[in-house]
Write a structure and sequence with these properties.
The chain is mainly beta. The chain is about 5% helix and about 35% strand. It contains 4 helices and 49 strands. The protein has a 6-stranded mixed sheet, with no helix packed on it. Strands 28, 31, 32, 34, 35 and 36 form a 6-stranded mixed sheet that branches. β4 (about 35) and β5 form a beta hairpin. α3 packs parallel to α4 (about 590-600). The radius of gyration is 45 Å and the shape is elongated. The termini are far apart.
Length: about 600
């Protein structure tokens, strides 16, 4: 594989390409090809018999190999590609590996930088970047990537949104830092019009004559800093000191999902063309292994160590913004001690996820569903009431404190459907014996309640209950009450159960009826005598018959006390019928007033009253 390339040199230094054999045995590369053009692979043929020892290196220089002969070529210092093809000297045999690189600084090579990111204790990602090297290592193992002199040190790509789904572009910013001990001009001193620039995620050309002092930071923003009110609000919101430069506006917007931010500086012009050299690059993301706490819940992405390679998620964390300042740890970052567990729940019920953490309190939480923040879900426990099928998926939680952040493992929620009731049991009012209206059956009136249910999670079972108590043996979709009696009055409910859940039917009420009858006829009283009251009950549902015999109207005059006492007695009785002697039905205005008071009290009942 291609391991290192030197493309910008001044004699006696010459351009070169280094191959590396990662295998445990020697590799014979005789008859293979090297080219700078994928469409023209056979530009330089490696001599027969050429081998690379196990774990070893092989270097080809332009002046003695690929730069001579009829197919000679050179790698451009302004940016190019390089490929190696396996072959038998004449034909290609299938293997190809290549690298792409940009403009190079004089004497600085590009090389492979491989690192492994481990997260959630078991998951890991292997990354390989082909980047500028801090030191030339042609013919030996690569060193570390070149860092600086200016780096991307903080990214606030998704500030807290003013409302759900509305991006807060004006608070987005990118922070850069001069990590050297000397001033850095953000332009070419020999050609001041050629300034540094940002590209990819957003486009921004630095103004002329901007210089960063040793260790100084600057902020790049989406708005025009010449708008004094916006600048003042921004500085106040993020506590930005007055000596921190704020530059803008840029074109574009930082993606909420992540993208590449690239900082370039101009090199000396060549034939009227200005090469731009990549100084720093950060390919951020809003999901692991990047710190997800920067995704809209308050924190920003901050570079842990500014002098270490920046396009590595291990060198970034998410904490509260510190615009214009270097990251400073505020304690022990959170770690998850108990991960959320996969859960199976039922539609309409409640699902719960929880997490336990260690580190420096206080902790802040943000639950996420399929990688998207759940707004308002900011405690260690996530409760999802009245669950719906659309909520099935992956749940994780981001935890952060003043020292850093972490994201839990994802826990899957499976949502199952409970049984459904298509036909509810129907309430019944029935006459029962000895009422003549009762069904003419030998063993009395029968009543059947029926429920119809369905489920995808068989088997389905049934259990009927009466007034909250299970009925032994009542385990069918239908329930029949034979020979209904007064004691059968009440609510009947069916519990339908499948392998997932139990649901209850609507209550069906059974009301037995027996019509009330008069079993003692009231005796007549002669005019002028005192009256008496008595009643006889027979039937169902508190049947009452009240018989009245009144004195003639003249005898009632002046006896207000006795009538008021009668009115009180009438109010205390629960009556179905109120009866007076036929010849007294229209006597006694005061009695009729008392009776109307009783009628108002009992308005809306099923009773019959006669005066």
């Amino acid at each position: 594989m291609i391991n290192e390339i030197l493309t910008h040199t001044d004699l006696p230094q010459v351009d070169a390409i280094e191959l590396f054999n990662p295998a445990a045995t020697a590799a014979n590369v005789g008859g293979w090809f090297i080219s700078d053009d994928f469409a023209n692979p056979k530009k330089f043929r490696i001599p027969d018999g050429t081998t690379i020892p196990a774990g070893g290196y092989l270097v080809f220089e332009e002046t003695t190999s690929f730069g001579i002969g009829p197919n000679a070529f050179s790698f451009s210092s302004k940016g190019d590609e390089a490929f190696i093809f396996s072959g038998n000297g004449t034909n290609l045999t299938g293997y190809v590996q290549g690298e792409e690189f940009g403009a190079a600084e004089n004497g600085v090579s590009f090389g492979r930088h491989t690192f492994v990111v481990t997260y959630n204790t078991t998951n890991h990602i292997t990354n390989t970047h082909f980047v500028a090297q801090a030191s030339l290592s042609i013919g030996s193992a690569n060193g570390q990537p070149k860092v600086g002199p200016v780096v991307i040190s903080e990214i606030n790509y998704r500030p807290v949104e003013p409302s759900l789904g509305v991006d807060n572009e004006i608070d987005e910013y990118i922070e850069i830092a001069n990590i050297t001990g000397a001033p850095v001009t953000l332009f070419d001193p020999a050609n001041p019009a050629n300034t540094w620039r940002l590209r990819s995620a957003v486009d921004f050309n630095f103004p002329t004559n901007v210089t960063l002092a040793a260790g100084q930071h600057a902020l790049l923003v989406s708005f025009n800093p010449l708008e004094a009110a916006k600048l003042a609000t921004f500085r106040a919101r993020f506590s930005v000191a007055q000596d921190v430069p704020v530059l803008g506006p840029w074109d574009g917007q930082l993606s909420n999902d992540g993208e590449s931010i690239r900082l370039y500086r101009p090199d000396s012009p060549e034939a009227g063309e200005v090469p731009y050299i990549l100084v720093d690059q950060v390919d951020y993301a809003n999901q692991l292994p990047w710190a997800a706490a920067a995704d809209g819940i308050g924190p920003s992405l901050q570079r842990l160590v500014e002098s270490i390679y920046g396009n590595d998620p291990r060198n970034w964390t998410a904490v509260g913004p510190s615009a214009g300042l270097s990251y400073v740890s505020g304690g022990t970052p959170p770690t998850v001690t108990t991960q959320p567990s996969a859960t199976i729940a039922v539609v309409g019920r409640t699902a719960i996820f929880s997490v336990d953490v260690a580190g420096s309190a206080p902790f802040f939480y943000q639950w996420r569903f399929n990688g998207v923040n759940l707004y308002g879900a900011n405690t260690r426990q996530l409760s999802l009431p009245n669950l719906q099928a659309r909520q099935a998926g992956s749940y994780s939680v981001v935890i952060f404190n003043s020292a850093g952040s972490t994201e839990s493992q994802a826990a899957n929620l499976s949502v199952l459907f409970p049984p459904t009731i298509a036909l509810q049991p129907v309430s019944r009012n029935v006459y029962i014996k000895p009422d003549t209206k009762a069904a003419n059956l030998p063993n009395g009136t029968n009543v059947t309640f029926t429920v119809a249910a369905s489920s995808a999670n068989l088997p389905v079972t049934y259990q009927w209950s009466f007034n909250g108590v299970d009925i032994p043996g009542a385990t069918s979709p239908s329930l029949t009450i034979t020979n209904v009696q007064l004691e059968h009055e009440g609510d009947y409910i069916c519990a339908v159960t499948d392998s997932v859940d139990t649901i209850l039917s609507a209550p069906a009420r059974l009301v037995p009826w027996i019509s009330p009858t008069i079993v003692i006829k009231p005796a007549d009283l002669t005019g002028g005598r005192r009256f008496s009251l008595h009643h006889q009950r027979r039937g169902h549902r508190k049947s009452r018959t009240l018989c009245l015999q009144l004195a003639p109207e003249p005898r009632l005059r002046g006896r207000g006390h006795e009538l008021r006492q009668l009115q009180g007695q009438l109010r205390d009785l629960e009556l179905d019928e109120l009866v007076a002697a036929p010849d007294q039905q229209h006597q006694g205005q005061q009695f009729r007033d008392a009776h109307r008071g009783l009628q108002r009290r009992q308005h809306g009942t099923r009773c019959h009253r006669h005066v």
